[in-house]
Amino acid sequence: MSELLRMENIRKVYPNGVVANKDVNLRVNKGEIHALMGENGAGKSTLMKILFGLEQPDEGEIYFKGDRLQVSNPAQAIQKGIGMVNQHFMLVDNLSVYENVILGMEPRSGVFINRTQAIKLVEEYAEKFNLRITPTDIVENLSVSQKQKIELLKVLTRGSELIILDEPTAVLTPQETDELFQQLTLLKESGYTIVFITHKIQEVLAICDQITVLKKGKTVETLPVKGATAEGISKLMVGRDVLLRVEKEPKVPGEHLLKVKDITVYNESGVRVVDKVSLSLKRNQIIGIAGVEGNGQSELADAIFGIMTVSSGTVDLKGENLTRETIGSRRNKGLAYIPEDRIVTGSATSLSIWENLFADKIEEKKKGKLGLINLREMKNAASDLIKLFNIVSMNQEQTLDMLSGGNMQKVVVARELSANPEVLLANQPTRGIDVGAQEFIWQELVKFRDSGKGVILISADLNELLELSDIVLVMHKGKVVAQLDNTQKISEDEVGLYMLGVKTQGKEGEHYES
Ligand SMILES: Nc1ncnc2c1ncn2[C@@H]1O[C@H](COP(=O)(O)OP(=O)(O)OP(=O)(O)O)[C@@H](O)[C@H]1O
């Protein structure tokens, strides 16, 4: 196989002194799907940002198609044939598919592409790579997986030969993941090359040809997928054996903790996003909530925590009606929340790690409610949490915006679990987190449940959902459409069918009480 990309001895030191890439080597062959793996903070995003022109290396050389590559911005990278699909899509919601695809495209030989040509271009690529999409559909009406297709089409129509995908399956159902993998296989067969950043080892084994593992800013090894095992790969990444499943004893549920009765929630545009949902969480229980992103799961958790207003129905914790209580009061009464968006609502990125870990206590101290709390004690406790959760950082004074995505997430999880609540609402608690940290967070959630507490777990990772939950509820278009009681016997594919609305259970509007 011929070499397409070679990154040699790459070193990148951020202005604050963090050495994100020390001595990284990456060699990618043309026409392969190459997985880039490693623990949170290992340096994967930094390396790809360098390749895509978003960061400049301090040392090292890059060769692409045999020539030395020096790019100072993404436009230059795209021009050379390198494209990137981020986790956060960059689409204009009120424009159509084809308008998004051609937006910002260089006019070809001075001529702008007209509407008919643009639609034809989208149709051609969509047809060739099985990216089923209607060019004139408006983006805001589309599902997450369709939006991802537009991002892929943008990259393809700009002539990319090497496509970087950053955790592309994090928000997809098993069916959508299968579809994406078929598209990637078609791309590969047509000579495209893909660098695939992921923490999901099973996906790497399913679709990739080679794996490069980074650890602490260095390349550990590049190995072929053929012959590799999940255990071997995780050991290479984490440096120890990792338990890739949860050890969880069956528990008899205790008394009621959280009761949600018939709640309905409207979003800012007046759309009913949660439609008469009921659930009942008991002590020693984890209730999982499955659903394709955008079907009301996050709004349900936001409403339980008081971020969104409940328009009808009630939320009770230990028999007390919290429906009209403030977030602060809900916290005091025993609710904690790991929100889906750790950057916008989950944390204050310009503050230090320790301030984020103890945000609530600092707030109470400011209000004079915690006069005796000692800053030194807080910093010592922060340092213990940093060690316990393996938060990769220089020290606890480092601000959150200087951490890798997965390490930011660990700060939020550590803060919420250490608040010792009665009920934890955990929305995508391990998204973007490496296998070692995932093992730890899973164990912590099970310990929490076993100590007589309750968890509402929302996760797009169906393996996680089925491993951890005692009961799974599936949401579709704001309603609970299924309650799956025997999580050990249900397959991910079956849950996926409920999520997509292909399979239904019970009557519409029926209440689910566990
Ligand atoms: N803008 C920045 N300024 C300073 N340090 C940074 C910056 N971005 C990342 N870092 C640091 O560089 C190191 C590598 O981070 P990077 O984001 O490349 O890791 P990663 O392997 O992609 O992690 P993850 O799996 O969590 O996404 C981390 O220690 C991180 O804290």
Automatic annotation (TrEMBL):
GO terms for molecular function: ATP binding; ATP hydrolysis activity. Keywords: ATP-binding, Cell membrane, Membrane, Nucleotide-binding, Repeat, Translocase, Transport. Coiled coil: none annotated. Its main location: membrane. It is found in: Cell membrane. PROSITE patterns: ABC_TRANSPORTER_1 (PS00211), ABC_TRANSPORTER_2 (PS50893). Residues 5-241, 258-502 form the ABC transporter domain. Transmembrane segments: none annotated. It comes from the Bacteria. One of its GO terms (cellular component) is plasma membrane. InterPro entries: AAA+_ATPase, ABC_carbohydrate_import_ATPase, ABC_transporter-like_ATP-bd, ABC_transporter-like_CS, P-loop_NTPase. It is a peripheral membrane protein. It holds the Pfam family ABC_tran. PANTHER family: CARBOHYDRATE TRANSPORT ATP-BINDING PROTEIN MG119-RELATED, GUANOSINE IMPORT ATP-BINDING PROTEIN NUPO. This is ABC transporter ATP-binding protein. It comes from Proteiniclasticum sediminis.
